[in-house]
Amino acid sequence: MQNNYVIFKIPSLSTNESFARAAVAAFCANLNPTIDEIIEIKTAVSEAVTNAIIHGYENTVGEIQIECKIKGQLVEIIVEDYGSGIVNVEMAREPLYTTKPELERSGMGFAVMETYMDEVVVLSEKDIGTKVIMRKTISERKK
Predict the structure, then answer these.
(1) Is 51 a catalytic residue?
(2) How far is CA 29 from the centre of its chain?
(3) Between helices 35-51 and 17-28, what is the axis angle to 10°?
(4) What's the pLDDT tens digit per position in 56-69?
(5) Which of 14, 62, 71, 117 is the most exposed place for a label (fewest CB within 10 A)?
(6) Residue 4, CA distances (Å) to 71, 79, 85, 129 in order
(7) How far apart are CA 89 and CA 91, in angstroms?
(8) How would you list the strands of the sheet with 74-81, edge to edge?
(9) pTM recorded for the entire structure
């Protein structure tokens, strides 16, 4: 399998979340993932993009960059915003922790990403932005 990648940018509008998940899923389709693997990838991307929209940019519109790389059967997805950043990444990764309870946010975004992906790395700096790097190995199946 040849290595491949795609990079695209979207405004941080909630209507773009579904486009981001569909675009990444379509790009990963060449690996012949199972339906469960596609659902897991789409859900993780959805959580990362939603976090960027809700927490990174709050009530403003900024830019979200999504990069998807394929190396053999490994998919690496990077969702990056240039918003407010996360003051305490470890606390933000705790299940049920939310800074937006008034929006009925569950605080499960990172937990969901960690459940569905093999690896999740969160890099963030206050007032600089956040980069979420997610990796998943797709099972090899006959095409």
Answers:
(1) yes
(2) 17
(3) 140
(4) 998 899 999 999 99
(5) 14
(6) 7, 17, 29, 26
(7) 5
(8) 4-11, 63-71, 74-81, 129-137, 119-125
(9) 0.88
What does the block give as tokens for 29?
A: 């389709």
CB atoms within 10 A of CB 99: 16
End-to-end Cα spacing for the chain: 12
Cα–Cα distance for residue pair 131/38, rounded to 1 Å: 22
CA 100 distance to own-chain centroid: 19
Q: Enumerate the domain spans of the chain.
A: 4-137
Distance of alpha carbon 23 from alpha carbon 68, whole angstroms: 10
* Amino acid of residue 134: M
96 or 109: which leads in pLDDT: 109
Give the pLDDT confidence of 49-100 residue by residue, as tens digits.
Answer: 999 998 899 889 999 999 999 999 999 999 999 999 887 767 666 655 565 5
User: Which residue type does 121 have?
Assistant: V
Q: Using CA atoms, how far apart are residues 129 and 56, in angstroms rounded to an integer?
A: 7
| Catalytically annotated residue among 17, 21, 40, 51 | 51
Catalytic residue among 17, 37, 40, 47: 47
Q: Give the pLDDT of residue 109.
A: 75
Q: Which of 67, 105, 114, 135 is catalytic?
A: 105
Contact 96, 44 (CB under 8 A): no
